[in-house]
Design goal:
Elements: E1 6-12, H1 19-27, E2 30-33, E3 38-41, E4 49-53, H2 65-74, E5 83-91, H3 98-112, E6 120-128, E7 134-142, E8 145-147, E9 154-158, H4 165-185, H5 217-264, H6 270-287
Antiparallel strand pairs: 1-5, 2-3, 4-6, 5-7, 6-7, 8-9
Helix pairs in contact: 1-2, 3-4, 5-6
């Protein structure tokens, strides 16, 4: 089943986060954090694909991940509560190959971020999900300052237009369009929708994006809690679907039974038919009640 997931969050100093650490973790690399005077080593992590996309007028430093995110941190004037980067997490289609997903994410990042002046640090991970299948997903770390076209360096101020909610909604819609075009290009019937289940008219509780477990203790605990909550939601959805199928079977059986009684009874009066219909109507009302 095709699943839609796109989340956006800010990597903040107020949460004691480091952009260099985040970049090293997502890329499975080892980087020295100049601002923190600390080495972040995640070379034991498996990463399926990693690349940086930059506007053509950005300096060469922007294509080096360690230089890029150290530059971001060194340029941050409000270190205690500064916003360092935007992190976009996207669930990728399982039905596509790694190469196809790379092309899909690359084009999406280019069209929605890089062409508008951001630097996009893309990393694709492929871990096993809770159902035993692969869970391909992409992390796209985005810079929050524009690049000066003349100098190729960061401008001093952040681009506040990139924080608009309408822009995030555009990104969400555009991801659904891009993924569905990829499905269609392969002749697949699967589709994803950025709208909520309620907006789509689907009476199902939305599941939690579990993500993956890391070596960090806090993240492991968070993963376990998300996994447990998601399993509970899946169980409730299963019971809901089972109840709905049972209701439909009961309604169909009532209709068949009524027709059979009328057809096979040797003598049946209009009053008896009305009584029969009244009983089936009560049953219909019961089965149509919301769970």
């Amino acid at each position: 089943m095709a699943i839609y997931h796109l989340s956006a969050k800010i990597i903040k100093r107020s949460e004691n986060k480091s952009a260099v650490a985040a970049a090293a973790y997502r890329a499975g690399e080892c980087y020295y954090d100049q601002r923190e005077n600390k080495q972040w080593d995640y070379t034991n992590k498996s990463v399926a694909h990693s690349q940086i996309l930059t506007p053509e007028y950005a300096g060469e430093w922007a294509r080096d991940r360690s230089q890029l995110w150290n530059m971001v941190q060194n340029k941050e004037r409000q270190w205690k509560n500064g916003q360092l980067a935007r992190d976009i997490e996207i669930a990728l289609p399982r039905e596509l190959s790694l190469e196809e997903n790379v092309q899909l994410v690359r084009k999406y990042a280019q069209d929605n971020f890089v062409d508008h002046g951001m630097i996009a640090d893309i990393n694709i991970h492929e871990e096993k999900a809770s159902d035993g299948q692969m869970n391909p997903h992409a992390h796209i770390m985005l810079t929050m300052k524009s690049i000066d076209r003349e100098t190729g360096e960061f401008k001093n101020a952040k681009n506040r237009d990139w924080n608009k909610k309408e822009l995030l909604e555009d990104w969400r819609v555009n991801w659904a369009i891009a993924a569905n075009e990829a499905y269609e290009a392969k002749g697949m019937h699967q589709r994803i929708d950025n709208c909520s289940l309620a907006a789509q008219g689907i009476q199902r509780e939305p599941q939690i994006h579990v993500g993956f477990a890391s070596n960090d203790i806090e993240q492991k605990q968070g993963y376990a809690e998300r996994f447990a909550r998601n399993e509970e939601i899946k169980q409730r959805n299963y019971l809901y679907e089972l109840a709905n199928r049972t209701k439909k079977l009961l309604q169909e059986q009532c209709k068949k039974t009524r027709n059979w009684v009328i057809k096979t009874a040797k003598t049946i009066t209009e009053e008896e038919i009305r009584g029969l219909d009244s009983g089936f109507e009560i049953n219909k009302q019961i089965t149509q009640q919301k769970l």
